[in-house]
Specification:
The protein is mainly alpha-helical. The protein folds into 2 domains: 94 residues; 41 residues, no CATH class. 43% of the residues lie in helices and 7% in strands. Strands 1-3-2 form a 3-stranded antiparallel β-sheet, covered by helices on one side.
Length: 150
């Protein structure tokens, strides 16, 4: 995924949090807890050597193949952001969380975790088969990067 150069890390993260929390099939819009969890996950990956553009670009909301409805809403919000007209309260909330992540105002509620799956998901994803979750938060089982312990 290539982002418009006018978009900062804050914009990219806020758009991703917004896109991932809105328009998910069979699911209500994400809660504030969901936004914080995803923000921490992405920030933890960035701290481990990636960039927000790389990590956010891999999220479903930027791929029409993975989630057409969420992708379309994310692009509409991106276009509104680039023209300076944003009134959607869910985006404003996502931008507030993104600012907390980028500027360090929000503590890491995931304690370094970078991977998750829904609590109780069976069978567990292949990558989680032989791993022990570090914690449960926002209805997800969270895992630390390989070689890291709490």
């Amino acid at each position: 995924m290539t982002f418009d150069p006018k978009l900062t890390d804050l914009h990219i993260l806020a758009l991703t949090l917004y896109g991932e929390s809105v328009g998910l099939k069979g699911r209500a819009p994400g809660t504030l807890e969901d936004l914080v969890a995803l923000g921490c996950k992405l920030r933890n990956r960035v701290v481990n050597g990636s960039t927000y553009a790389e990590e956010c670009g891999d999220c479903d909301c930027w791929s029409p193949e993975k989630n057409e409805g969420s992708h379309a809403r994310t692009l509409v919000m991106r276009d509104q952001l680039l023209t300076g007209v944003v009134t959607d309260h869910k985006y404003i909330e996502a931008a507030w969380v993104a600012a907390g992540m980028i500027h360090g105002y929000c503590r890491d509620v995931l304690k370094g975790a970078t991977e998750s799956h829904p609590v109780g998901e069976l069978p567990r994803p292949e990558w989680a088969q032989h791993r022990i979750p570090a914690l449960s938060y926002a209805k997800q089982s969270w895992y630390l990067p390989d070689g890291v312990s709490v």
